[in-house]
Automatic annotation (TrEMBL):
Gene3D superfamilies on file: alpha/beta hydrolase (3.40.50.1820)
Pfam families hit by this protein: Thioesterase
Keyword Hydrolase: yes
Keywords, sorted A to Z: Hydrolase
Source domain of life: Bacteria
Protein name: Alpha/beta fold hydrolase
InterPro entries: AB_hydrolase_fold, TEII, Thioesterase
Entry similarity comment: Belongs to the thioesterase family.
Molecular function terms, GO-annotated: hydrolase activity
Species this chain originates from: Streptomyces racemochromogenes
Domain named Thioesterase: residues: 2-226
Length: 241
């Protein structure tokens, strides 16, 4: 199976770089970067979730030659959802499984206080509390000047995203992952993903906050392996012989 991992807002593939070693040797794990991040740092950020999903799907379309799955954390979760929708629209094979982490289920309205519009000092303070951003970025004015526009663009993408009107449940197995102490995407709010898939494999709650896997990704990776393998096995059993 080929697993595509999609990063959080303001991030890149780097925090996930050790994940391939923690997943089965038989999996081909691909860590994706959005424009303006990681290996694609020189490209302008994309501030619309649908356009970002189209960009990433264009990049992986030639690699959808075997069963594949998508895992996204925070911003990456909603982009994984959009990629699955667009794959179906293009007549491409659907993923056998999607893992959505630390991003609440699609909502009809955005947040009352968008992060991407906060004053500079308050934005840095909120992001620092949320975790996931290296401290050096907040402490170094030159680094902050480089990353602030990218972070604000990502937050705008997340906060302005809405599911397409009338979008029905995805015909794809889906698991939701939440940090027990995540006030931003609480387990109760993550449970709402059950209504957006025809095959909900369950809500997995792990110790920690929004970046619950940051110190030790092992428990999450073992759960990803169990869930994705179950979905892959079910897809194989359903395939006509």
């Amino acid at each position: 199976m080929r697993l595509f991992v999609l990063h959080h807002a303001g991030g890149s593939h780097l925090p996930y770089r050790h994940w391939p070693a923690g997943l089965p040797d038989t999996w081909d794990v691909r860590l994706l970067d959005a424009p303006g991040h990681g290996f694609l740092l020189d490209l302008p950020p994309i501030t619309d979730a649908g356009r970002l999903a189209e960009f990433l799907l264009d990049g992986i379309e030639a690699e959808l030659t075997c069963p594949y799955a998508l895992f996204g954390h925070s911003m990456g979760a909603l982009v994984a959802y959009e990629i699955a929708r667009r794959a179906a629209r293009r007549g491409l094979p659907p993923p056998v499984w999607i893992g959505v982490s630390a991003r609440t289920a699609p909502q009809p309205a955005g947040p009352a206080e968008p992060y991407h519009e906060l004053p500079d000092a308050e934005l840095r303070s909120r992001l620092n509390l949320l975790g996931g951003t290296p401290d050096g970025i907040f402490d170094d004015p030159e680094l902050w000047s480089v990353f602030e526009p990218v972070i604000r663009a990502d937050l705008r993408l997340v906060e302005e995203w809405r599911p397409a009107p009338g979008a029905g449940p995805l015909p794809v197995a889906l698991s939701a992952y939440a940090g027990a102490g995540d006030a931003h995407a609480s387990p109760a709010r993550m449970a709402g993903w059950a209504g957006h898939t025809e095959r909900f494999l369950g809500l997995r709650v792990l110790d920690g906050g929004h970046f619950y896997f940051q110190d030790d990704p092992g428990p999450l990776l073992r759960q990803i392996e169990r869930d994705a393998t179950a979905a892959l096995d079910a897809a194989g059993a359903a395939r006509p012989s």
